[in-house]
Amino acid sequence: MPENFTLSPLVLAVLALAATCASAGEDDTRPAALADLPLEQLMQVQTVTSASRFEQSLRDAPSAVSVLTAQDIREYGWRTLADALASLPGLYVSSDRNYTYLGARGFLRPGDYDSRFLLLIDGVRANDNVYDQAALGNDAMLDIDLVERIEYVPGPGAAVYGSNALFGVINVITKSGSALAGVQAAQSFGSQGERRSRVSYGWHAQDGSDAVLSASSYRRRGGDLYFPEFDGDGGNGIAHGLDWERATNLYAKLHRGGLTFGAGYVDRSKGVATASFGAVFDAPDATRDSRAFANLDYQKALAPALDVAASLYWGRSDYLAHGLYPGETGAPHINVDGDHGSWYGMHAHAAYAGLAGHRIVVGVEWNRNRRRDQFNYDIDPYASLLDDRRGGTRRSVFVEDEWRLDGATIVNAGLRHDRDSEAGNRTSPRIALIRTVTAKDTVKLIYGTAFRAPNAYERYYAIPVPGGQAPNPGLLSEDIHTRELVWEHNPHAHAKLSAVLFSYRMHDLITQLEDPETGLLQFTNTERARAHGVELAGENTDARGVRTRVSYSWQRTADTLGRGLVNSPRQLLKAGASVPLALLNARLAGEWQCATQRLTEHARVGGYCIANLVLSSTGSRAHGWNWSLAVYNAAGHHHADPAGPAFVQEAIARDGRSVVGKLEYGF
Prior knowledge:
By secondary structure, this protein is mainly beta. The chain has one domain (7-666): Beta Barrel (Maltoporin, Chain A), CATH 2.40.170.20. Helices cover 8% and strands 55% of the residues. It has 8 helices and 38 strands. The strands form 7 sheets. It has a 22-stranded antiparallel β-barrel. Strands 3-8-9-6-7 form a 5-stranded mixed beta sheet. The longest helix is centred in the first third of the chain and has 18 residues, at 7-24. The two termini are 45 Å apart.
């Protein structure tokens, strides 16, 4: 996308929305592509559980909820959660070639490890407890082939979920054994030596018992990368063979009666070619992340109007990095950086619908951060630079009431109180007025607040050497106050148009800055930031099975002095279409994503447009052969993402064109 991208995408967006609306208005009451879906799956397309912790229709949810299904994932060839989320209105993804970062409505702060989103796996918190990171790339705990649907609830979710649900809640709902129906084996091959393998088993009994077991691995050789900032002083700016990546995933889910047990594990290693945090350029540098979780859930209807749910959960995360750093007087030395995190807790809530017009949810949550340990040391000669060990406890209570004033009006009000042993007490309200104007139109007026407690990394990480970091134990929680006006139009069951006006106000925004006197990085509370904008979106499936989706976002973010924020595109334009090819028994899908220019720390990067094409078979997903061929960034467009203050580079280049082929067989 050229840097002066302004009017033309808006025109395209309006035209695309008009086309979607026109096709949605046709009398195609039951698209052929959806006719074969089981009733349960069709109902799931229209309901969500993430906005209020109970099942409700998309129209009744107190947010402009978006849902991505396994069919979307398959047809568009998304390989990670980040790929899938990047297709949604208002969201955008950045990469520093080590981790993947998600931005929302113009906010993506330097040094933020996706801690402003709450990631759930089957409704259970999956953020770690040192960085509060929501892992969305190949470091995520789930192979995306195991995802049945993704529910994204934009806006503040602290009234239901507490800290980290600042910009949105991402709930990843996994497949059941009945969806797999036996053994599946999959293998993909791609550019830069990419290899992905998976073996899964699904079982389902007549009494409803269900089981899923899966193991997968990912390998990517990568290639050489050129960074002009390091071209000189005897170097040529090329990092040789350092962009590799490897990951292994294990997953199990067992269900019987009202009990469900789930467990997952990922071990991911990534070569780091960017020489971040002052490392020696073109020297071996790598990070390793391992994560694990286990949870036991219980759900039961105690009475026709009373449902209860409870969860016991446990999690662990470990991070380790080896890098070569210049010595102050002698030869470079190897430095080791890492952390160990572990936590456990419980959650319980009850939903009562016995009062006329009310559905009330009351819940409690208790979480113990058993370990939040951070360490850093030099190997030869040995020198300990950081050995910080922390714990902590959080207790929470919440209540929510969905009050139907009449057949067309709902007031959804929620309130949660969190007591954190370090961050103190926080109370988070949310209220929404939802009005069904016509049989096809719904208007929502939403006000909410949320907070994010500073994590252990932001408060206590301290490396007092050049390029290191200073601690800030007095760091305050950041707050957000939001107002949204949502209009949703449903011409029929398989089409939707929406428009969202939003206004955000953030206080005590946590930002990573460099002290010009000491050269050390430090997280500090900047004063305030604000954002306002509009999101337009439309999607439709017609009688021929053609699926289309388009969205346009305009947003403006600024600090208290009116300056634009770093890594904040003014406009986003996205479009996708999936068309059946009857002669090939396949579907052809195309996806287009555009963003305008963004500020970096001291300059700016240009806008971009990238296009992906995927050809995939449409045979039975449970048995026989299936295949796909995908071309990502098909035009080979060169684009880059802003880098933070930990980098010499102003921006980090993204991948060019890549090709991936995949074969899958179900027994």
